[in-house]
Design a protein that fits this description.
Elements (H helix, E strand, L loop, with lengths): L2 H13 L22 H15 L10 H4 L2 H13 L1
Helix pairs in contact: 1-2, 1-4
């Protein structure tokens, strides 16, 4: 399963509590569309660290990195490549 799919599955099952997912586009802002709240962002940080074996610094927990599926996918890819 690719990074994007793993993130979407995690969000659906653990933050939206749905097996069917939630209708949103990969570019939709988590916060603006009520997909993920501030607590959910922290859960996403832990998921990313555990699943992809990386460390996320506090300074990296920004809207630029954690506010949509596409932004988070790009962030994870960038961290894995480093």
């Amino acid at each position: 399963m690719d990074i994007n799919s793993q993130l979407k599955t995690y969000i659906a099952q653990n933050l939206l509590f749905s097996d069917n997912g939630f209708e949103y586009e990969d570019n939709d802002s988590f916060l603006e569309h009520g997909i993920v709240d501030s607590t959910g962002v922290l859960e996403l940080v832990l998921f990313v660290e555990e699943t992809f074996g990386m460390s996320v610094q506090d300074s990296e927990i920004t809207r630029e990195n954690f506010d949509s599926v596409n932004k988070l996918t790009t962030f994870v890819q960038r961290k894995l490549a480093a």
